[in-house]
Amino acid sequence: MDATPGRRERKRQQTADLLVDTAMELFEAHGYDAVTMEQIAAAADVAKGTLYNHFPVKEALLRHYFHRQFAEQGPALRNKLLGEPDAIRRIALLLKHAARWAQQHREYMPHYLEYRLGQSIRPGAERSGTEVVFAQLIAAAQEANRLRKDLDTATLVHYFRYLYLAAFTRWIHDPTVRLENELATMLDLFVAGAGEAQ
Questions:
Q1: Are 65 and 20 within 8 A, CB to CB?
Q2: Distance between CA atoms of 162 and 63, rounded to whole angstroms?
Q3: Looking at the domain 58-194, which fold is it?
Q4: Greatest extent of the chain over all pairs of C-alpha atoms, in Å
Q5: Sign of the C-alpha dihedral, residues 32, 33, 35, 36?
Q6: How far apart are the C-alpha atoms of 70 and 127, rounded to whole Å?
């Protein structure tokens, strides 16, 4: 079956990208809190209804922007991770990359995370794709006997994802926290708790 999106879906994606690009330009120029949905629609030259059909709230625009960036950077990052022979070191490299990226987008992270955390318990909520990468890395670590195998990969990914989010929320709430250090500590705690029993 052809996986190429149809004309209608391509048009929808183009409109979504236009709206997100416009919103990000406005956020950068005026600050996230100062920009309204109405201003975004006007700057993109679309009806307010069109904007709300694609993105019901400003935070959804951030989600689309962040997820698009992750999709664009994903292949190169995956190749870099696969070049590291140690399974746990691969996870550590991913976390370092995430910390650098988040630092560059710090102004937007509280809004994005609050929105994502509110959605995270809903079945079928849109995902960024990080769970797939987490699952691949954790499965490889289990295969290499670096993480315990008595728990299935999905369970370990679930716990890892929430520890990951906890590190981000601590960083957001405490300006003295260095995110890279926080994520390294989180990984140490995860590996100590989920590590292969000796």
A1: yes
A2: 18
A3: Tetracycline Repressor; domain 2 (1.10.357)
A4: 62
A5: positive
A6: 11
Q: Where are the domains of the chain?
A: 1-56, 58-194
Q: Does pLDDT of 139 surpass 90?
A: yes
Residue-level pLDDT at 16: 95
Top CATH class of 1-56 equals mainly alpha
Residue 16 carries which side chain, given as an amino acid letter? A
Residue 62's Cβ-count burial label (10 Å; 0-12, 13-18, 19+) is buried
DSSP state for residue 196 in the 8-state scheme: P
Residue recorded with tokens 């990969």:
153
Query: Is the pLDDT assigned to residue 127 strictly greater than 80?
Result: no
Q: What are the CA-CA distances from residue 77 to residues 69, 72, 74, 133, 152 (Å)?
A: 12, 10, 5, 10, 25
Per-residue pLDDT tens over the stretch 163-172: 999 999 999 9
The 10 Å Cβ neighbour count of residue 96 is: 14
**What phi and psi, each to the nearest 5 degrees, are found at residue 137?**
-70, -40
**137 or 5: which leads in pLDDT:** 137
Predicted local confidence at residue 130, as pLDDT: 80
What are all long-range contacts of 99-104, with beta carbons under 8 Å and residues at least 24 apart?
Answer: 99/179, 99/180, 99/182, 99/183, 100/180, 101/69, 102/168, 102/171, 102/179, 103/179
